[in-house]
Each structure stands twice: as C-alpha cells, then as structure tokens.
Amino acid sequence: MPDPGNDPATAPRTFRIAAIPADGVGAEVVAAGRAVLDALAGDSGGAFTFAWEEFPWGCGYYRETGTMMDEDGLERLKDFDAIYFGAVGWPDVPDHVSLWGLRLRICQSFDQWANIRPVQFLPGVRSPLRSADEHELDWVVVRENSEGEYAGLGGRNLSARGHGGEVAVQSALFTEVGCERIMRYSFDLARTRDRRKVTSVTKSNAQQYGMVLWDDVFRRVAADYPDVETESVLVDAMAAKFVLNPQDLSVVVASNLNADILSDLGSALAGSLGLAASANLNPERRFPSMFEPVHGSAPDIAGQGLANPIGAVGSAALMLDHLGLPAEATRLREAVAATTAAGVLTRDLGGTATTADVTTALIDAL
Ligand code: NAI
Ligand code: MG
Asked: What pLDDT does 123 receive?
C-alpha cells in the first residue's frame, strides 16, 4: 500500500529498526517477520540491510522491574528508522497497565496519529463471507490514533464513599486539528487507490458534541477533494456494512475506539485476526513510526508454535513502504499470497502449518 508521506530519495540504505516483541505470540511473530525481512535484504544484492536492536520490554520486564519499559526508553527509541512491535499483554498484569505502559505510551509520545489497517483477502483462505473474493475485497481502515475515546482523560474518585460508591469519568477528546489531519491523510490515501472513496464512521446521532465536530470537519475536508467520493455511516450500521456490503469500501476513517473494533471485524472477515497488519504512523516523520500486527499476545496459543505470522509480515510490508522500498513491500505481499494459495496455513485458518512452516514458505516464495 503506498504511503503518501514517503520520500525514497532521502531513505537511508541501512535501516535501524527497534524490535519490541513484548509478550506471548508477539515474540514468535516478530521473530518470523525478522527472518523474512532479513531474507529479503539478503536477496537485495547489498542494496539494503536491517540493523536490528531488540528491547526486552513487556509484562515479563514489568514483573522483574515494576515498569513496562525503561525510564529513558522513549529517548532510546526516538532515533530509529522504525519500530517493529509484537503484542503486549499477559494475564498476570492488568491490561490497562501493560497497554498504557508500553504501546500507547509509544504511540502517544511519538505522535503516531494515523493507524493504518488494511484488510487483505488472500487466496486459499476461506472467508466467512461466502461470496468473498480476494479480487473484489480490499479496504483499509484509517484509525485516529492520538485522541478520541483513548485520550486517557478522566479519573476515578469517591472511593471513600465505601464499597459501591466509587465513580469514574472517561472522556473522549475530539479536536479540529486531530480530526482534520486524519481525514486529510485518508483522502490523500484514497487518491492512491483504484477506488477513490472515503467512508467516515460516525455516531453523531448519539454523541452530539465530539462526533458532530467530526462530521463537520469531514464535510469541510471533503470539499477540498472533489475527485474523491464520500460517505458518512453510523458505526453500528457500519458493522453491518462490513459484512453485507464490503465491496462498497475503500478507505474507512474512524475514531480511535470505532476503528479499533471495526478493524478486528474486518480481519476476522478476511479469515483471521492473525492476518491483520497495521502501521502507527507519525506522518511528519518527526518520530519513528511503529509497525505491528493487529492481534494481541494470544495467551491461549502462545509458546506452541501455532501463531500465524502473516499479520506481522504484512506489518513488515507496511514498514517497507514507509522506508521507501515499495517494490520490496510488493514482493513480500506476493510471497504472502503465494504461501496462502499453496495451502500453507496455520491452525487459525483451518490448516496444520506451524509458525516456522509458514516462515519457511514465505522465505522460499521470495
Ligand atoms: P488476542 O488478539 O491476543 O487473541 C484473540 C484470539 O485471536 C485468540 O483466540 C487468539 O488465539 C487468536 N489470535 C491472535 N493472534 C493470533 C495469531 N497471530 N495467530 C493465530 N491466532 C491468533 O486478543 P485477546 O485475547 O483479547 O488479548 C490477549 C492480550 O493481548 C491482552 O492482554 C490484551 O490486552 C492484549 N492485546 C494487545 C494488543 C497490542 O499489543 N496491540 C492488541 C490486542 C490485545
Ligand atoms: Mg484492537
């Protein structure tokens, strides 16, 4: 997928990548993604290489040190060309501690305000959408990644009232700047695609402040892109549309929470959560962007070699786009399609292949 912000002319040839595998299957899929990327670099005739540095942060680190990442972690990450992330979270650490302590901390501190989540329908993978066809279905969710419902604003109080008396406020934040930049990004992305269309996901019927501002900005930005078709759909109706009319989608822009939910639905429709890729972009390139599969640490299958590495490898392809290597990104995506078409599928897709089998097949297909 083209990254409208990339500038190949200034791209360095040795890419310094910070790997943060973190927890559960995160370690397994990041190892797979690294192996595939190194194979690609090894095959480039010295045109480019990856210099990896791995960070041990995550729930295990929290258990030992009481912190999800080092105090100076952001300082150490900030000069990398990109961050390759696995998944964070483990049953023995509260999810809000692990997520805010590592992944959301990086996203927010590095102003990775655009979260790009393509939904790929692959040959050889059966979708629960009976009529689905990889040649017709192809959309990308653009998630506002810096504010909205995950702005982290609010608090808990009045626990002194005793059992049953505590209150919590969790506020959503919508700013014109935040809405406008994610929408412009979406329209620019739509212009790079066959179908020039942006669908805005809203809930302005019920959320009369934030989502009405969202709608106002969408209309204003749309006026600058007369060549791009637009549509505004309520989030509940949008969930149904993903299932009933997915061929009608191209770029879908949504707030942080709505896009979080819809992109899991999209990847499940494509066949498995294990397939879904994502990029957390700082489009201005003031900070490194971060590339990670959409799925979590999957404690139910972790450590058994069952994790599907395709989401992580698709995220690696998004990273190559961002680094100014679009031809290599296409090679990776073709290798993924060749692997699924050949029936090399992990258990989540109804197959029997292990993470290692798929990784080997991907490298062979390259
Ligand atoms: P999950 O994504 O880890 O798992 C959901 C289901 O999908 C499970 O049945 C799992 O086996 C399956 N699955 C996930 N990835 C897979 C893969 N690569 N291959 C095959 N099957 C796969 O979501 P869950 O169980 O809700 O959360 C587990 C932990 O992950 C929690 O601590 C949660 O906070 C964290 N999490 C972290 C995310 C991140 O780091 N970006 C995103 C989502 C959840
Ligand atoms: Mg999610």
From this structure: 87
CA distances from 291 to 196, 207, 277, 317, 332 (A): 25, 31, 8, 9, 15
Nearest to 63 by CA among 31, 38, 100, 91: 91
Task: Give, to the nearest 10 degrees, the angle between helix 176-191 and helix 210-222.
Answer: 40
User: Which ligand places an atom closest to the C-alpha of 88?
Assistant: 1
- pLDDT of 3 > 70? The answer is no
Length of the chain in terms of residues written: 366
Average pLDDT over residues 147-160: 94
Q: Which atom of ligand 1 is nearest to the CA of 298?
A: 3
Nearest atom in ligand 1 to 29's CA: 18
* Per-chain mean pLDDT for the chain: 93
> DSSP per residue over 9-64, as a string?
GG--SEEEEEEEEESTHHHHHHHHHHHHHHHHHHTTTTS-EEEEEE---SHHHHHH
pLDDT score at 126:
77
Range scoring the smallest mean pLDDT among 36-50, 113-127, 310-324: 113-127
- Tell me, yes or no, if 203 is annotated catalytic: yes
pTM: 0.87
The DSSP secondary structure of 327-342, one letter per residue, reads HHHHHHHHHHHHHHHT
To test the ligand 1 pocket, which listed residue (88, 98, 297) has its Cβ within 8 A of the most ligand atoms?
Answer: 297
Ligand at shortest distance from the CA of 150: 2
